[in-house]
Design a protein that fits this description.
611 residues; Immunoglobulin-like; ten-stranded mixed β-sheet; 41 strands; 17% helix; globular; binds zinc ion
Length: 611
């Protein structure tokens, strides 16, 4: 049926509070008017009539949300009906669910749900997780509810709306057309096949800056500069840039007054790169919207603070929580959504809180005292807002999240392993020596995190199988082995590190299967990060290429979370490419899995004997 609308994809935000169905050619009468509620399990469904689901059935499992699962399937053909089913737990208030018609696409809004303010979206990440791009996984982070005085909801919602206007591209249309110079954008309903966290559908020049606008949840990596020509660069992991707008260059000024130019490209599969070519890269700062959906990259001299937000905010509370000996979390709670900038150099983390006008300094000093944030300072800058500075080291890892309502910022600060050798806090017990001949094996991914997926074959299943084979070989030779998971369960990266620290092994080996967009790449890699892991990586790689007839891609220094956050020698083995048809056919065989396990086990044993 030519006239049926096409349901192209299912998109979520990390909070589980917004689900978006991309529908092409939807007609008004087919738009779902209501949903049907069912029990056992608690679920709702709604139908999109006269529509066809393009591609396979889709399913998203939420880890820690009131919404448990969203499924999308062709319910019937002739008549053609696509059905969406949302499963939730008893705490979920379905009266808050709204079906919103967004240009013919279906937006399911559950954001009024009370819990939503406890959800944080990661907006800045110096250690993005490897391989998250293939999974349709939503890992919502829930933090303990913090006790706060009630803030009037109406005022706050209005404030958020006003702040978001500063980042909105659509408001430009109301002007005389001279407030911006260039626009590169696409209609989001055109071709959205998204398996990523953020989809860039447009970029604009607004008020002398580059406004990046998209759908989903934006995360940026650390900004850096390049020479010849001078450029400032920000990568966005887990991001897809619409093909139609890639690499289109925009001039930052309408006249010839500046020569700065900006463009956005798909740097890698699922990684976008923003590049501004400029004589003054050091002047550029990223300004984040309070809904984590857009960012303005602008020369600080051109920043007009009044255009950012007229709504002032105050720091209401601060909380510091120690996660483990290396990591501590700081939550700053504001009275209104905050517009901010994150600037990181080798010595410090600076945050500009542009619309923040006041804070209780003695209270904050008391909160920071005796914590990892003890050297954090705040200062009030006239015309700008509050600047916070935290002294850090080059290899420390900073991750910053923002609450859905824009009124809280969470900083996760992890000290680097090298710094850890100096006693930071006297209360820490002295570290026990590792248990001799003990190994932690970490099967990559698991549960709702599938890792790479090709032709119905999941990375998580291969890694578990191989890891169990490694464990059994090592045990038969008298070694002590602990596996981070023995079942198909989800395990966070920090959980894997905490487990390893508690097990106190001599070495740590994480097992993965590689993938690429191109189908040609194949072969074996061993990754390390810290210097103390090079020898182990070399020996394991040597055994891999000896046992397996595949390309030797060598050892690589990579900042993968699990090997970066482990003190003992730690490597991550990529045992072959699932995206290569020939290698995929091999990887599922007992022969290849056993050969890989044998190589890894022999590498481990040789290393431990040589030590
Ligand atoms: Zn992996």
């Amino acid at each position: 049926m030519a006239d049926s609308s096409k349901v192209l994809s299912l998109v979520y935000d990390d909070s589980g509070s917004i689900i978006y169905l991309n529908v092409d050619g939807a007609v008004q009468e087919n738009f779902p008017q209501k949903f049907v509620k069912l029990e056992n399990p608690n679920r709702i469904y709604f139908d999109i009539n006269d529509s066809i689901l393009i591609g396979p059935k889709q399913q998203i499992v939420f880890d820690k949300s009131n919404i448990k699962e969203v499924r999308l399937a062709q319910f019937s053909t002739n008549p053609n009906v696509v059905r969406a089913v949302i499963t939730y737990d008893e705490n979920f208030d379905t009266s808050k669910i709204k079906l919103v018609n967004l240009n013919g696409n279906v937006l399911v809004q559950a954001g009024a749900n009370k819990l939503s303010n406890e959800y944080f979206n990661k907006i800045y990440d110096e250690a993005p997780e490897p391989h998250t791009y293939n999974g349709i996984v939503a890992n919502s982070q829930v933090i303990k509810k913090v006790a706060l005085p009630e803030v009037k909801q109406e005022g706050s919602a209005a404030a958020l709306e006003e702040i978001n206007k500063a980042f909105s591209a659509s408001t430009l249309n109301n002007s005389d057309g001279k407030t911006y110079d260039s626009i590169v954008s696409v209609d989001i309903s055109s071709d959205l096949k998204l398996r990523t966290k953020y989809f860039i559908n447009g970029y604009y020049i607004k008020n002398g800056g580059l406004l990046v606008s998209g759908l989903g949840q934006m995360t940026t990596a650390k900004m850096f500069t390049l020479d010849y020509p001078n450029r400032v660069v920000i990568d966005l992991p887990n991001t897809y840039v619409d093909k139609k707008i890639r690499n289109k260059e925009l001039l930052m000024c309408p006249d010839a007054s500046c020569k700065d130019r900006a463009k956005i490209g798909q740097f890698e599969f699922n990684k976008a790169r923003i590049v501004v070519t400029t004589e003054t890269p050091e002047k550029y700062i990223p300004v984040y919207s309070s809904d984590a959906q857009s960012m303005l990259l602008i020369n600080a001299d051109k920043l007009n603070h009044t255009t950012l937000s007229a709504v002032s905010s105050n720091i209401q509370q601060a909380y510091v929580k120690k996660i483990n000996s290396k990591t501590a979390e700081l939550i700053l709670q504001f009275t209104a959504p905050v517009v901010h900038s994150i600037l990181r150099d080798d010595k410090s983390l600076n945050m500009y809180l542009f619309n923040v006008k006041s804070y209780n300094e003695p209270e904050l000093i008391k909160t920071f005292n005796n914590t990892a944030y003890k050297n954090m300072t705040l200062s009030l800058l006239p015309q700008i807002g509050v600047k916070s500075t935290l002294k850090v080291s080059k290899d420390d890892v900073i991750q910053i999240s923002q609450s859905i309502d824009g009124k809280a910022i969470k900083i996760l600060y992890t000290k680097s392993a090298t710094q850890q050798t100096q006693p930071v806090e006297k209360t820490d017990a002295p570290k026990k020596p590792p248990i001799k001949n003990k190994v932690v094996i970490d099967p990559g991914h698991g549960g709702s995190d599938y890792g790479a997926i090709r032709e119905g074959i999941n990375e998580k299943d291969i890694t578990l199988d191989m890891s169990q084979r490694v464990a059994s070989i090592l045990k038969s030779k008298g070694y002590k082995v602990a596996l981070t998971r023995t079942d198909d369960i989800y395990l966070g990266l920090q959980e894997r590190c905490d487990y390893t620290e508690a097990e106190n092994p001599e070495i740590f080996v994480s097992i993965h299967v590689n993938s690429a967009v191109a189908t040609e790449p194949s072969g074996l890699e061993t990754h390390y990060y810290h210097e103390n892991s090079i020898k182990l990586a070399e020996i394991i790689q040597k055994h891999l290429v000896k046992e397996i007839d595949s390309k030797d891609r060598g050892i690589l220094k990579s900042k993968f979370y699990v090997i970066n956050h482990t003190d003992v020698p730690a490597v991550l083995v990529e045992t072959g490419f699932l995206s290569n048809a020939d290698e995929r056919a091999e990887l599922v065989t007992d022969k290849r899995k056993q050969a890989t396990a044998k190589a890894i086990a022999e590498g481990i044993m040789e290393y431990l004997k040589k030590k």
